[in-house]
Amino acid sequence: MSTERIHVELVGITKRFGTFAAVNDVTLTVPEARFVTLLGPSGCGKTTTLRLVAGFYDVDEGEIRIDGRRVNDVPPDRRSTAMVFQDFALFPHMTVFENIAYGLRIRRFSQANVTRRVEGVAQLLGLQGTEGKSPHQLSGGQQQRVALARALVVEPEVLLLDEPLSNLDAKFRLRVRTEIRQLQQQLGKTTIYVTHDQEEALAISDTIAVMLDGRIVQVGSPFDVYYAPASRFVADFVGTSNFVEGRVIADRDTTRVDVGGITLTLGPRGLPAGARALLAVRPEAIHLMGPDESCEREVENYLGGVVNARSFMGSRVRYWIGAGGTEWMVDVHLAAPSRLLAGEVALRIPQERIHVLECQEK
Ligand SMILES: Nc1ncnc2c1ncn2[C@@H]1O[C@H](COP(=O)(O)OP(=O)(O)OP(=O)(O)O)[C@@H](O)[C@H]1O
Ligand SMILES: [Mg+2]
């Protein structure tokens, strides 16, 4: 086991606006040089959590520690954090140079040091040549870089990024998010990143903390969160899932679930007989076969079905298949337009791809 140094620690923090707890008993550990993402729907408390870490709000309960030191009462400019705001919040009347230099000016750096540091980050972020311009003369992507430069120039130990890509168009966002991740790894900078975009979170994070209603509902690697969601909410918010509910039939070594009309075999899971189980299956986990494709019909979890609808999405096709009293979403990579399926089909659901979300004994 590697011993990672804990850099930022949130211990049971709560923040109320009036009686409403926007952040409710949140505990999270951020190791040094890691990229941790707060992911959740609008209003779940992501920005508020980030502002608490930065020191722009005071916590009502709990403790924030940076480098093992309690910082609840430490002002923002003495926390060794820097935040990039969702709307960039650049100063419109200042040049790019002065925008980047701002944090150094208030820390009373000498002119020579200001110039050296601003030129350094401008180069790092590919902003050379824009220093004399004002923000409105820049593209959205360049403004985003200026916002990042302004945070990096003070050489914070912890970088806090609040949906920094939301103003960029979709394609450019993919590119810039990869750059942010590369830069973070290159600098080894501890980062807390906020997004409501699950794909973005999966793509760039070491760890994802999924939030709902002011609470963290799951913490894990992108793989954990995607393949082993802790709840129906996570399974639905991070990616898409089919959900089926049924009653467990325990059969010596193997667990089966009767989901009304059909029985799904799960393999050895040790679930108690008679319990109600909620199962999740990702659309890409299901095999879809046309009428001409031979398949061993004795195989487990094989269902005959019919295509109710389909949607062409470029590299893949999403089907909605009626089978066994349920409508299943199935995603298929399309080899050729002639492979589009209609009418009668068959499904096979590999048992290892059936995830048990809940199991309650009655
Ligand atoms: N200053 C404030 N005064 C009162 N309520 C607030 C304040 N700031 C946030 N809230 C409320 O707290 C909750 C969490 O807000 P927050 O901005 O942290 O959400 P978020 O997860 O960042 O959402 P989004 O994805 O929309 O940015 C929301 O219900 C919001 O209305
Ligand atoms: Mg927000």
Give a description of the structure.
The model has no long low-confidence stretch (mean pLDDT 92). The protein is an alpha+beta fold and 362 residues long. The chain is built from eight helices and 20 strands. The chain has helices at 46-54, 96-106, 111-124, 140-152, 170-187, 198-204, 222-227, 232-237; strands spanning 6-17, 20-31, 35-39, 61-66, 69-70, 81-84, 158-162, 190-195, 207-212, 215-220, 242-251, 254-258, 263-267, 276-281, 287-289, 302-312, 316-323, 326-333, 344-348, 355-360. It is elongated. Helix 2 packs across helix 3 (111-124) and helix 2 (96-106) runs parallel beside helix 4. The chain folds into two domains: 6-237, 3-Layer(aba) Sandwich (Rossmann fold), CATH 3.40.50; 242-360, OB fold (Dihydrolipoamide Acetyltransferase, E2P) (Beta Barrel). The protein has a six-stranded mixed β-sheet, with helices on both faces. It has a five-stranded antiparallel β-sheet with strand order 13-12-11-14-20, with no helix packed on it. The protein starts with 5 loop residues before the first strand and ends with a strand. It binds adenosine-5'-triphosphate (ATP) and magnesium ion (MG). Magnesium ion binds next to helix 1.
In the CATH hierarchy, the third-tier topology of the largest domain is known as Rossmann fold
The helical percent reads 10-25%
Indicate the CATH architecture of the largest domain. Answer: 3-Layer(aba) Sandwich
The hetero compounds bound to this protein are: adenosine-5'-triphosphate, magnesium ion
Which class best fits the helix and strand makeup? alpha+beta
Question: Which strand order does the major sheet show?
Answer: 6-7-8-3-9-10
Low-confidence stretches: none
Radius of gyration: 25 Å
Task: Supply the number of structural domains.
Answer: 2
What's the mean pLDDT score? 92
Describe the main β-sheet briefly: 6 strands, mixed
SS elements, strand count: 20
Which CATH top level class of the largest domain fits? Alpha Beta
How many angstroms does the end-to-end distance come to? Answer: 40 Å
> What's the tally of helices?
8
The secondary-structure element order is: EEEHEEEHHHEHEHEEHHEEEEEEEEEE
> CATH homologous superfamily name of the largest domain?
P-loop containing nucleotide triphosphate hydrolases
Shape verdict: elongated
